[in-house]
Amino acid sequence: MAPAKIMKAVSVEWKDITSHSGWHDVEDNALLPITSVGFLMAQDKDNILISQSISPENSRVAESLLIPMSVVAKIRRLR
Fold this sequence. Notes:
The chain is mostly beta strands. It contains no helices and five strands. A five-stranded antiparallel sheet has the order 4-3-2-1-5, with no helix packed on it. The chain is elongated. The chain starts with 8 loop residues before the first strand and ends with a strand.
């Protein structure tokens, strides 16, 4: 995955998996809509990587999230 050249803030709308243990109704199984916000660190056809925090030198990151593009509904650049 190629790193992003400019660290831009993005909002990523995606669907997360759900899991149930024990007895439950079949209708209770649905992907959960999630919105995550962070700095775009890298993106390719398979994945997008965002991080909540970056160092001033952009050499270290914290709270990173790797999301498969197959579950991404929308990526929006933030100002």
